[in-house]
Design a protein that fits this description.
The protein is built from five helices and six strands. The chain is of the alpha+beta class. The C terminus is likely disordered.
Amino acid sequence: MFQTEFEFTLPKGFLDTEGNLHRKGVMRLATAIDEISPLRDPRVKANPAYSTIIILSRVINCLGALSEVSPAIVENFFAEDLNYLQDFYRRINGLTTETATSDSPLEVSVPENSLNSAQTLVYS
């Protein structure tokens, strides 16, 4: 069967307002609308980098005890966790290349993890 959902564990975790730490989650494969829909959002028009926040909130099915992950939650992820999730998103969706260039701050070389080989993850 074709796998469409993937488990992950955040390096640091999300601390909710009650002090609960949420680290384990599930991300689904992205669809075309997941990538296109944020382009209509005024927050993305004002700041194109915000599309990352919206896309991740759409594809993360759950995080710890949270059954829904809103953009407001993603906004409060620690930088290390945000970077991890961007990399994870690129890997599971096959949005990778073999080599990174230092020109783009969002291109990251990721060592072998749960997938086959070291990969560069590019997000545009």
